[in-house]
Design a protein that fits this description.
By secondary structure, the chain is an all-alpha fold. 78% of the residues lie in helices and 0% in strands. The protein is built from 27 helices and no strands. The C terminus is likely disordered. It is a multi-pass membrane protein. Its main location: membrane. This is FUSC family protein. It comes from Novacetimonas pomaceti. It is found in: Cell membrane.
């Protein structure tokens, strides 16, 4: 037997790291080729139209280009909207503050801050439209500062580049796209199946009382947030007539409510308690079927029937089991959970087989963080003011470009949950873009005599950037490369860039990215540990409001917001490598269950007008005063439970009363875990 030649570890690691370049996947080659051709087409049209800055059309192609066609379509649409808004704002600022630098710069800084503030409250590429309106205004206004009479023509020119780049990218994507709706439907099915499979694993842990349930529940919430945000794009590819995305969001809401209900399962259902022993095998069989399911009509119907049968079984036992109150309450909670699962599976059936004349609409809200939005706005405004101050003090000829690039980078990172993550990769991409543009500008382009030669050489550099953008590990640096390299290249019909011009442009571009990195790390820096403490305090304050607000939100609203928060906490902990965050994530899960049970309790209170509902009203007012998660709050819940227990003995197995007891039991159980920091799980 021959021995394989020895290879040092660093060579093996280096080969693995560069696999995206030397052995790319066919999908990566198609993505890079598609966008390279679109970029060269946009550049050719810009040359033919004799536009003054054709590089912006190329940069637009790479800015809009996304791996999924639905993402590209959404980003292109919102990019045009943001560009138009930014162009109008630039014209207004130039007209309002001609030759008045220290009125102009603060106005632009305030606009950037406002756009970043509003973008934080939006999802996906809707937030990108706000950000784009901010830095487009800065780029146009800065370019027109020395020639204010031409601001309108500069704004029109900028809008022309954007539209040209978007149209070329869309046209090339249509040539490469085939069976778009079919593939989008398959993607939608795969996302929903992934959620059902992960739910099966989590539900099995709940049934078996696994100690790692809450840890995995946090990861499940993070996965749900990711799938929920991504479900918008296959929906765009499927067309407006399809309501599959609405049904998918309803699936996520029902599943999240079901899991949160089970967090508040009766404390009596311990490891050795017989409450679940007789139905455990059926629940585990349901978990196995969920884990292996595919979105096929027969399988979905069987699962739906199984969930409904379990719901009927638990309801029957809740009404007729006379052995113990805890058993009846536990079976009531399980009945509600199986009902939620049955509703989720019904929506899965609607995804696979859309009903005729389907008009179903559903939105699942997310967390809206006022403090994060304010900090994002202040960071963006601070960066512009610092860049403006540098320009005024130094009178740097490249200062205006320095301000424009600073605005662009701050806008791109301002809406991120943790803006520090990814900034260094973007800086490395900016450096690589300067290196690539320098090779082209100084050593290659001077020897080219026509567009065909330029397209061939430039296409190689763009193709490599496309491969890097498809690869997740290099996508952050590739985003900077595709956006900044064409700007440094500065191609033109009758333009050759000399060494001095190139070095000045490269210097102010790299320094602008470096300033943005420093601003995000030094101005109101993000700390994951502080964020967790703030989230916990914010949720506790919200719980008090849920008890007394005149128009309480729907449980779907609360659960959507809670899942978004928990997903953020999990991502922040993973990015920071903080293993100590598990306790705070568990606490957030418990507080989420408390809030859900409060809202369910208020719904039940509105259904009846008797002594028990009056006792609930008194309890809710008391919880709003003393906090639901407090010793005094737990004491009041115990007093109310004793009163309702006496009423239950008198009225027998009243379904309404059992649901109320289940909600109170859930609040008491999860609030106690949250207060005590108990690491024993459901």
């Amino acid at each position: 037997m021959t021995n394989a030649p020895f290879r040092p570890a660093w060579t093996r690691n280096g080969a693995a790291m560069m696999q995206w370049l030397f052995c790319p996947a066919p999908q990566a080659v198609g993505f890079a080729l598609r966008n390279t051709l679109a970029s060269l087409l946009a550049l050719a049209v810009a040359f033919w139209m004799e536009l003054d800055s054709p590089q912006w059309a190329v940069a637009t192609v790479w800015s809009v280009a996304q791996v999924r066609r639905g993402e590209s379509m959404s980003k292109a649409r919102w990019r045009i909207v943001g560009t138009m808004a930014g162009a109008i704002a630039a014209v207004v600022f130039i007209a309002a503050f001609p030759q008045q630098a220290w009125l102009f710069f603060p106005a632009v800084a305030v606009w950037i801050g406002l756009c970043s503030f509003l973008a934080t409250f939006s999802l996906n590429f809707r937030s990108y439209a706000f950000v784009l309106s901010g830095y487009t205004c800065s780029i146009i206004a800065v370019a027109a500062a020395s020639q204010p009479d031409n601001v309108f023509f500069i704004a029109v020119s900028r809008a022309t580049y954007i539209v040209l780049g978007v149209v070329c990218e869309a046209a090339m994507a249509l040539l490469f796209a085939h069976d778009l709706a079919t593939r989008a439907r398959a993607t939608m099915h795969a996302r929903v199946e992934e959620v059902l499979h992960q739910l099966a694993l989590l539900l099995r842990e709940i049934v078996l009382h696994d100690r790692e349930t809450l840890t995995h529940a946090g990861e499940f919430s993070d996965m749900m947030v990711s799938v929920h945000k991504g479900i918008e794009f296959p929906a765009i590819e499927m067309g407006r007539h399809s309501h599959a995305a609405d049904h998918a969001r309803a699936v996520f809401a029902d599943i999240s409510i079901m899991v949160t209900r089970l967090f508040g399962l009766s404390g009596a259902a311990g490891q050795g308690d017989p409450v679940l022993l007789d139905t455990r095998e059926r629940l585990l069989r349901l978990c196995d079927n969920l884990h292996s399911c595919r979105l096929h009509q027969g399988i979905l119907q069987a699962l739906h029937g199984e969930a409904e049968a379990l719901a009927v079984l638990f309801q029957d036992r809740a009404l007729h089991d006379n052995e113990a109150e805890a058993r009846r309450v536990t079976h009531t909670v399980l009945h509600a959970a199986m009902t939620d699962l049955a509703q989720a599976l019904a929506h899965c059936q609607a995804i696979f087989t859309p009903p005729a004349h389907d008009r179903f609409r559903f939105r699942l809200p997310g967390h809206r963080d006022l403090r994060l939005a304010l900090y994002n706005g202040l960071r963006g405004a601070a960066a512009i003011m610092i860049a403006g101050l540098v320009y005024e003090v130094t009178a740097w000829p490249g200062g205006m470009g320095f301000i424009a690039i600073t605005t662009l980078v701050c806008g791109l990172f301002a809406t991120r949950e943790n803006p520090v993550v990814g900034t260094l990769r973007f800086l490395s991409g900016a450096i690589w873009s300067a290196v690539a543009a320098g090779c082209l500008d100084l050593w290659i382009v001077p020897y080219l005599s026509n567009y065909e030669e330029l397209a061939f050489v430039l296409g190689i550099f763009l193709f490599v950037g496309g491969l890097a953008k498809y690869n997740p590990g290099t996508a952050g640096a590739a985003a900077a490369y595709g956006l900044l390299m064409p700007n440094l290249l500065m191609p033109g019909n009758q333009l050759r860039v000399d060494e001095i011009t190139f070095l000045n442009n490269a210097l102010h571009t790299v320094l602008a990215v470096g300033l943005s990195v420093l601003v995000f790390r030094l101005v109101l820096p993000f700390h994951a540990a502080e964020e967790r403490i703030r989230f916990a305090a914010h949720i506790r304050a919200e719980l008090r409001g849920l008890c007394i607000m005149p128009l309480p939100p729907l449980p779907q609203w609360w659960i959507g917001t809670s899942v978004d928060r928990i997903g953020r906490l999990v991502r922040h902990a993973a990015q920071a490598g903080d293993r100590a965050a598990a306790g705070e994530i568990r606490q957030a899960l418990m507080l989420s269950a408390v809030g859900l049970n409060i809202l369910l309790l208020r719904q039940l209170k509105r259904e009846q007008d008797n002594d028990a509902s009056h006792s609930l009203a008194v309890l809710l007012r008391t919880l709003a005063r003393y906090q639901p998660v407090s010793r005094r709050g737990l004491a009041m819940i115990s007093v109310t439970r004793r009163r309702l227990r006496a009423a239950a003995r008198h009225d027998g197995a009243d379904p309404w009363l059992l649901q109320v007891m289940g909600c109170l039991d859930g609040i008491e159980h999860t609030a106690a875990i949250s207060m005590n920091g108990d690491r024993t799980h459901i």
